[in-house]
Amino acid sequence: MSENSHDGDSGTGSTPAGDPVCGPDEDPHAWIAPLISSVVTVPLGLAALLYGALSPMECDSCNGEVVERFHDSWMIGWTVLWIGLLIALAVLIASWAVPHQLRYAARRVSLALAAPATVVVTFVAFMALVDWP
Q: Residue ranges per domain, the chain?
């Protein structure tokens, strides 16, 4: 093996400018925003899902027209809750999937902030849609 086996490396230990793995545009802190978003979004989404699933017990003592109105509105709200939480999950996954380059930092942070905001907006929509007794 020859002494110059690094093919263009001058022996300084630096990576070439065109290296796609560790380029100069690489963001070393790209994982922070998606991680914080995951830590907030996942428990918040699970709590919203749990509350939505247990909310029919609110109308256990209801009867007649009240229970029918509640059930019909709860079914609509439950559907909206599920769709909204799936959208929040997709946004969270997108925040992890954004390339780890500095030029995409704003997009990554925006998606990371949008995920828990989507959960909150979805839960508020669920609460507004249900005709509570």
A: 32-55+68-129
